[in-house]
Amino acid sequence: MSDDDKTPVREVITDYAQAHFRYFRTADGTVYAQKNGHPVARPIRSQGTTGSHRQELMVGLFKDGRGVFNGTALKEALDLIEALALTEDVQPVHIRVAPGFDGATWLDLGRNDGQSVRIHPTGWNIAIPDPREVCWRRTQLTGELPLPAKDTDDKGIDLLLRLCNFASAETECLAIAWLIGCLGPSVPVPAPFLTGPQGAGKSTGGRMLVRIIEGMSGDLRRAPKDEENLIAAVAAGWVTALDNLSHMTPDLSDAMCCIVTGAENVKRALYTDGDVVRARYRRPMLLTGIDVGVIRPDLAERLLPLRLERPGVRRTEAELWAEYAEGLPVVLGSLLDLTVKVRAAEAETPTDLRMADFAHLCAQLDAATGLGALTAYRTSLDDLNDDVIEGDLLAQTVLRHADTLEVGAEQRMTSTEWLHHLSRFYSSDELRPLPKGWPTTGKVLSDRLKRLQPTLAARGVLIDSGRTSEGRYLEMTRLQAPPPHEEKRMF
């Protein structure tokens, strides 16, 4: 055979790849490869040491007797495949949880055979999703989940609550609501903050909650030192769990707010001058710690405090985790059963809470089970508001000044006038110096009060701003403080 009759190596590789894989692109232009009939997709430009499409293609060519090809031929073939895939329709890829057709939701079990859980309006079942409905993206953080058990009669929920040292029935109810929220791909959920005395099992309880969604390989990790590393960790998994927090910097607090409710990060692509890399993320988070100090108001609205207590009887780690691993299929099955019931329940959406989707989920949980999740959620937010006020001297001063006003009274001044007025009010009683961090200019005071608006409004003080012909102003109105929510025992 003459050289002209030989098929170029890159065409052999390209023909084989197109026959055995489906190639498509995502909205950001990344091209993925998906083996025919399998829901897991891999980026074709992945340089990872394990599980890359390049390795998958090389192994397939070798096992099917096509030969062993050098890097140059593979690169040329993948360049051509990538160019062809850019003309295909756009399809998203998902980590762990994904929306499906007809109102269904999919949960990736992380199995090699591609079996996943389909949660639909009338129940749930185990199946391999159609690649054109769901494309799973997996990373080193994607652990394997066991096949969930059927017909559990809520035994798994009872087992989970018995293993975790939750301090009250209200805390247990909120933990269950959060787990149900984690199975929703489009519902932002507040971040549970597991608190309690030393030895209460906060880290162990956090691991148990995370591993229901992420498998036995899921674990807690230390908070990254910078936002870029935090975003990289968040983008590679579904639930981000940070352990033993003792201090919350403003940057970390802002980053957590973005992670919970969703944001986008754009940075320059490596080895380029003009290209950029976009990373969209909205993930469930979980935090543990005894005390993180002062909590900023915007983060407080996105937290879900779960208090634990010290257990009366201690058990070994091996015994505890052996029981947990054995019961995980039943725990997951019970959670799926309850999720179906909750999603089918009808309930009104509370309109006075920041995390309205999670509040609606709590209302659905109450309608399906008769529990008091929504009341417990409101109470937890009141407690967090108290924590914000206790850690902010400016908020305390504003509330003390508001107590001197009559209900319905309004007081309007410029921000600079308010600064002088509140500073004098703070120091007049004991002639004490202004504390560190006190606003130094009217602009700083105005920004601080805007951040404190939800916290102060929950205590019956409304802060508003506006402009007249004379300039901008801040207005304080003393409202009737809302009555505390009645506590309700749920079990």
UniProtKB/TrEMBL annotation:
Keywords: ATP-binding, Nucleotide-binding. It comes from Streptomyces inhibens. The keyword Nucleotide-binding applies. This is ATP-binding protein. GO terms for molecular function: ATP binding. The keyword ATP-binding applies.
